[in-house]
Amino acid sequence: MPETTRELLSPDAWKDLTFGPFRGDVTIHWIRPFEGDQPGVALLKYEAGASVPRHRHEGLETILVLEGMQSDEAGDYGRGSYIVNAAGTEHSVWSDTGCVVLIQWDRPVKILEEEIA
């Protein structure tokens, strides 16, 4: 079993994992990076107030909220929420309080609006 998989089975074990830059105040820990036609799987950690600008899903995206609250135009999703975004859908994502999510993308998303600094 890969090391990351074993660590994820323990409560809050993700807190000891190394996260790197992703987008602004959102960091990433890759469990399985995109490779060929294989989906990407990662943990995303949003600091309080962090966001990802409007983007389009080029493939299916599934999310499990592990901690905190993630939000988009359709609502707020707390710990334990399972979110499915179909290919072709668009939204922006943010977290007022901060959150950690387990995410799987069939294909990378396409950013539609860049954040204005």
From TrEMBL:
Pfam families linked to this entry: Cupin_7
SUPFAM superfamilies: RmlC-like cupins (SSF51182)
UniProt feature coiled coil, ranges: none
A Gene Ontology molecular function term of the record: hydrolase activity
Every ChrR-like cupin domain range: 16-103
Keywords: Hydrolase, Plasmid
Gene3D superfamilies: Jelly Rolls
Source organism, top-level taxon: Bacteria
Protein's name in the database: Allophanate hydrolase
Source organism per UniProt: Rhizobium favelukesii
